[in-house]
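Consider the tokenized backbone below.
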């Protein structure tokens, strides 16, 4: 029986050198590998309630919300060191930046507690409740 598993290795030394950076999770695919001048081309306005952000991106209205990483967790932005042609090959990645919150964007409707990204941020607390010790 063969296994099509691949291994991803992380250069730990890159974590110590990583700076904090703003992160935006967009509801689209942008064909760019590298840094973007987000603040120059993508400025959000904040509404009265201070949670919802609105912006226009290529003529489409986006609504967003800042979401914090779960307590005790840090988000990592990774970059592949040597890009391989196959998803089945082992990979090596390095940390290019870290974050403790991100702005999550939806098309035309604000994020809700039913969105998978929002629910994922609750998972560590839920997992602890399910798998933690019972007093």
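A designed sequence for it:
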């Amino acid at each position: 029986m063969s296994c099509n598993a691949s291994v991803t290795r992380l250069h730990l030394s890159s974590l110590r050198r990583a700076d904090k950076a703003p992160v935006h999770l967009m509801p689209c695919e942008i064909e760019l590998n590298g840094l973007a001048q987000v603040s120059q081309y993508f400025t959000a306005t904040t509404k009265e309630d201070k949670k919802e952000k609105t912006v226009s991106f290529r003529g489409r209205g986006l609504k967003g919300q800042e979401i914090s990483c779960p307590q005790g967790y840090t988000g990592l932005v990774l970059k592949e060191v040597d890009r391989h042609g196959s998803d089945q090959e082992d990979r090596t990645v390095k940390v290019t930046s870290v974050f403790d919150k991100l702005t999550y964007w939806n098309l035309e409707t604000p994020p809700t507690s039913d969105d998978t990204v929002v629910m994922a941020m609750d998972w560590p607390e839920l997992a602890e409740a399910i798998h933690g010790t019972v007093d």
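The CA atoms of residues 82 and 106 lie 32 Å apart.
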